[in-house]
């Protein structure tokens, strides 16, 4: 049956955007209800994104490390992977975290409704709970956090074996051969993970380089690591002609620099961007404005064109990242309370959990120059970092971008082990407006990867110790 209930703050979607917004809104005294169509809370990130991918990447990395430890005296020639056990472990990690979100909702007195929301107008939402039950709710304020889904290519249809990241994370076997269409971070991360498990991987990227959002200087070591250490074929300028399915195998035909090549594969993973979930939720009945990509237009408080409707995360512009969604969730929740919260993306990091890892925050050299800054570039090689060498992983460097006139930290890029962790220090430096001298004067423990930040900062101010 259909009946009416009143809600104060409604949040649609429980991903890292929605659930974080719910908690902050509750902390501020709002009465919060969150609607989620899936059984499990946490959105793409916890269920089929960040977390399971990092678990799979870690397991693959472990297997690969063991297989390749001969040069440090560890002989483990016969490394076996029990993939169903890997999957079980990965799911247990997901379950801990989604269960954690469930408890956080309870703890913050956020009401959770499991069902699919559809806007009837800008004040009303209809929730389909199952085949037989729908319920209508009125709300005062709403945060739209419905996230995104994998983009299907027009000439490559999904099937049992032509899969998106969601299915690639849940395979019950290690494919013998895998073709990855798309060399963005998701394709590279999952391609690396399966290559580490022993799959023969081919990566087909349409652009001139993989990981296009990153400088060539950063993506090159990743490319080399894939080719030289994992026998992965990384092919750029590849245009997909056809994907033809036969029984147990798939033939992918691509044109690469004028040559037509075919690839024989057991699975094809398509990672060609993501599509915002803004098309099937009744938004047209709310008056909320979208841009030409279907993203919801918002102001610097995440407010849409309708005063009491907000939108956060993958449904709005900017990089589709979990920490961006969460940050916006907090801003939107505070804005509803009338607080002067305002979006500021100056220090938002982006990371690729490749091997070696990539991380970037703030300005790149090119962006800084384009914005008219006179910059200083300081590179410190991991080959001169004791910790990197003792980890037997010294490929990489830390690049610091500072403003020439006063050494203000504008940005940083890192390639190497733990780049994902190290980038936090540089983000912090940018956020509080530190100069290279501030970093150089901070005592960094030895031997650590993070000494590379101090070393690069010393280069910036002309007093390097371990570089000439
Ligand atoms: P989502 O996480 O997509 O959540 C939206 C939620 O809304 C979903 O639970 C959905 O079921 C629900 N929903 C949708 N429509 C309705 C409706 N009508 N009614 C009710 N509920 C609805 N980001 C990182 O920062 N780091 C990473 O390492 C990383 N790795 C990734 C790996 C993969 C394989 C993928 C696919 C993504 C990865 N991301 C990563 C991106 C990250 O997952 C997203 O940016 C993030 O989840 C976006 O959060 P969100 O809250 O906007 O939406």
From TrEMBL:
Cofactor(s) the record lists: FAD
Pfam families: Pyr_redox_2, Pyr_redox_dim
Substrates-to-products reaction catalysed: N(6)-[(R)-dihydrolipoyl]-L-lysyl-[protein] + NAD(+) = N(6)-[(R)-lipoyl]-L-lysyl-[protein] + NADH + H(+)
Disulfide bond sites: 45-50
Residues covered by the Pyridine nucleotide-disulphide oxidoreductase dimerisation domain: 348-457
A GO MF label: flavin adenine dinucleotide binding
A GO BP entry: 2-oxoglutarate metabolic process
Binding site for NAD(+): 182-189, 205, 273
Keywords: Disulfide bond, FAD, Flavoprotein, NAD, Nucleotide-binding, Oxidoreductase, Redox-active center
Active site residues of this protein: 446 (proton acceptor)
Protein EC: 1.8.1.4
Xref: InterPro entries: Class-I_Pyr_Nuc-Dis_Oxidored, FAD/NAD-bd_sf, FAD/NAD-binding_dom, FAD/NAD-linked_Rdtase_dimer_sf, Lipoamide_DH, Pyr_nuc-diS_OxRdtase, Pyr_nucl-diS_OxRdtase_dimer, Pyr_OxRdtase_I_AS
Annotated FAD/NAD(P)-binding domain residues: 8-329
CC cofactor note: Binds 1 FAD per subunit.
Similarity-based family: Belongs to the class-I pyridine nucleotide-disulfide oxidoreductase family.
NCBIfam families: lipoamide_DH (TIGR01350)
Other comments on record: The active site is a redox-active disulfide bond.
Identification of the protein by name: Dihydrolipoyl dehydrogenase
């Amino acid at each position: 049956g259909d009946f009416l209930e009143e809600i104060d703050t409604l949040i649609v979607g429980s991903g890292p955007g929605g659930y974080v917004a719910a908690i902050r809104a509750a902390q501020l005294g709002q009465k919060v209800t969150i609607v989620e169509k899936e059984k499990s809370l946490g959105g793409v990130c916890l269920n089929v994104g960040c977390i399971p991918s990092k678990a799979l990447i870690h397991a693959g990395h472990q297997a690969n490390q063991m297989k390749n430890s001969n040069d440090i005296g560890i002989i483990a020639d016969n490394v076996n992977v029990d993939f169903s056990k890997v999957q079980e472990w990965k799911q247990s990690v997901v379950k801990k975290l989604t269960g954690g979100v469930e408890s956080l909702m309870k703890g913050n007195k956020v009401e959770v409704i499991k069902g699919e929301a559809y806007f009837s107008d800008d004040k009303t939402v209809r929730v389909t709970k199952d085949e037989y039950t729908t319920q209508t709710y009125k709300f005062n304020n709403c945060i739209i956090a419905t996230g995104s889904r994998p983009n299907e290519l027009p000439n490559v249809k999904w099937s049992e074996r032509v899969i998106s990241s969601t299915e690639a994370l849940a395979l019950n076997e290690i494919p013998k051969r895998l073709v990855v269409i798309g060399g963005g971070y998701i394709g590279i991360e999952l391609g690396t993970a399966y290559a580490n498990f022993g799959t023969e991987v081919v990566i087909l990227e349409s652009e001139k380089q993989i990981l296009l959002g990153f400088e060539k200087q950063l993506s090159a070591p990743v490319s080399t690591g894939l080719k030289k250490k994992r026998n992965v074929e990384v092919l750029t300028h590849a245009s997909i002609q056809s994907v033809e399915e036969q029984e147990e195998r798939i033939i992918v035909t691509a044109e690469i620099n004028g040559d037509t090549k075919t690839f024989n594969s057991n699975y094809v993973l398509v990672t060609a961007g993501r599509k915002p979930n803004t098309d099937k939720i009744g938004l047209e009945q709310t008056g909320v404005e979208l841009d030409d990509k279907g993203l919801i237009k918002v102001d610097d408080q995440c407010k849409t064109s309708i005063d009491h409707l907000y939108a956060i995360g993958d449904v709005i512009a900017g990089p589709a990242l979990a920490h961006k969604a969460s940050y916006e969730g907090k801003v939107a929740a505070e804005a509803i309370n009338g607080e002067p919260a305002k979006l500021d993306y100056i220090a938002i990091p982006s990371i690729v959990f490749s091997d070696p890892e990539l991380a970037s925050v703030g300005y790149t050299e090119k962006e800084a120059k384009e914005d008219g800054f006179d910059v200083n570039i300081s590179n410190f090689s991991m080959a001169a970092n004791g910790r990197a060498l003792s980890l037997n992983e010294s490929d990489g460097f830390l690049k610091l971008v500072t403003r020439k006139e006063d050494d203000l930290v504008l940005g940083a890029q890192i390639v190497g082990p733990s780049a994902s962790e190290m980038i936090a220090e540089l983000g912090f430096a940018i956020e509080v407006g530190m100069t290279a001298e501030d970093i150089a004067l901070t005592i960094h423990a030895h031997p650590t990867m993070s000494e590379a930040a101090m070393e690069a900062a010393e280069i910036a101010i002309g007093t390097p110790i371990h570089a000439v």
